[in-house]
Amino acid sequence: MRRVKKLNNEQQYLKAREILRIANEAVSKAKKENKRLGIPEYFMKNGQLYFVLPSGKITTRVPAIMKRKKPLE
Predict the structure, then answer these.
(1) Sequence-separated (6 or more) residues with CB below 8 Å from residue 58
(2) What is the DSSP-derived secondary structure letter of residue 38?
(3) E strands along the chain, which residues?
(4) Neighbours of 40 (CB within 10 A)
């Protein structure tokens, strides 16, 4: 991990913490909505894309729901 210089202004740290809190809240909300819609989570490891199915199974195959041409209504 790369070290960075410490900032002199405590307000910058507080602002960064607030931005991260908002971002984490948005990600959590999006994950819940995707789960409700049956859209699997996904992540990349060593250049390989993986999907976490609702059953908890992890696969490299693109799930059918992510292959749809039409948007969900």
Answers:
(1) 50, 51, 52
(2) T
(3) 41-45, 48-52, 58-59
(4) 19
Q: Read off the pLDDT of residues 2-61 as tens digits, 9 standing for 90 and up.
A: 887 877 888 888 999 999 999 999 999 999 998 888 889 999 999 999 999 888 899 999
CA distance 16 to 10: 10
Unique residue bearing structure tokens 């913490």: 17
Continuous segment of H or E residues that includes residue 44: strand 41-45
The DSSP code for 42 is E
Interatomic CA distance for residues 52 and 64, integer angstroms:
13
Residue 70: what residue type?
A: K
Judge contact between 52 and 41, C-beta under 8 A: yes
